[in-house]
Amino acid sequence: MKVPELLAELRSGNIRVWAEGERLRCRTPAGGLSPEMHARLLSCKGEILQFLRSAEKLVQTPRSIVPLQPCGARIPVFAVAGHNGDVFCYRALAQCLGNDQPFYGLQPPGLDGQSEPLGRIEDLAGYFAGQIRAFRPGRPCIIAGFCAGGAIAFELAQQLLELGEEIGFLALFACPFPTTYRLLPRMRQRLRVQVKRTLQHAGRLASLSFLKSRSQSSEQGREEKTQTREERPPEPDPVLLLRTRVQRATLAAASRYTPRRFAGCVSQFLPCREWLRSGYEPLLWRSISQHSEEFFGPDGCTSANMLREPHVPVFAQLFSHCYQNLVESGPQREKT
Q: CA neighbours within 13 Å on the CB side: how many for 206?
């Protein structure tokens, strides 16, 4: 029987258990704890204590810190989400890293429908720094960022170092350099994407006969018109509306951000080597980092699918390699 089921059975008998240091305490009505149940409690003592400690930590977790995998003895990862604030983009990565690697997502203000999105990278980083320090005062951590969240993660690691905190390393997953979010680079990027799509479309059309292509285009046009007439506009999803607000605020903040030189270690995880020519200028992070290295995924991998199957195990392995080289080789290791 699993621990939650065992505890539910105890509660149904008005039996209460709690952790007190390394001891498991129990309060029960007279005659409520049978010898069989007592033996089961003793045999599962270690598992019950671990479960109760994890539950206590979750209750004390600040609302911006989302536990994707809260257990384990390694130094924990605090990961900033991409531009829309969805921390569950890391869920598959957290699972692939295993049960010994604590992994927390950092959710920005503005997604709860009560707070407003923050408009400066420095303010977002300061907000997360305060949450992390309240949650784990004076203890080492690893900071990560994905896509536009890389700028926030970079500033967060910077601020934590300046506050005297220890950062194992900074992990950037397909993070464009902040200047690429400005107007002119974004226009160039859009043009580059459009040209690529046009060439791909032209290649597909060239592989078809003219009549077949024309017939398919006409049929597709009729289907689209019919579908447009029949479908009603969907009701706006309130969650998506909130994410859109956060996305706009984050991208605008990233476009105004000028990162300072970072004294720690930066490990960049890029979808593939071709991503170096994507226009997102990831190598510019080198110029403001004391130590920097790049790791590449397989050919054909993109920023949209690098943290999903089938590519995410590759990046989990690369991340574990960095952990072993930069953290386990040093004097620091999280203690239980």
A: 6
CA distances, 56 to each of 5, 7, 18, 20, 151 (Å): 18, 15, 10, 12, 32
Element (DSSP H or E) covering residue 2: none
Preceding peptide of 310 cis, ω within 30°: yes
Cβ neighbors of 51 (< 8 A, separation 6 or more) are 3, 4, 7
CA distance 148 to 314: 22
Q: Are 163 and 267 in contact (CB under 8 A)?
A: no
Q: What is the CATH number of domain 3-54?
A: 1.10.10
The residues, any chain, with a CB within 8 Å of residue 70's CB and separated by 6 or more, are: 54, 57, 58, 102, 104
Of 315, 336, 333, which is closest to residue 79 (Cα–Cα)? 315
**Structure-block tokens of residue 159:** 């601020």
Instruction: Tell me the whole-structure pTM to 2 decimals.
Output: 0.71
Conformation bin of residue 25: beta by default, left when phi > 0, alpha when psi is -120 to 50: beta
Ordered by start, the domain boundaries in the chain are 3-54, 62-182+239-328
Q: Block means of pLDDT (10 residues each) for the chain, length 336 residues?
A: 76 82 82 83 84 63 83 95 95 96 95 89 96 91 97 98 96 97 72 64 58 56 56 73 94 96 96 94 95 96 96 98 84 41
**Fold topology of 62-182+239-328:** Rossmann fold (3.40.50)
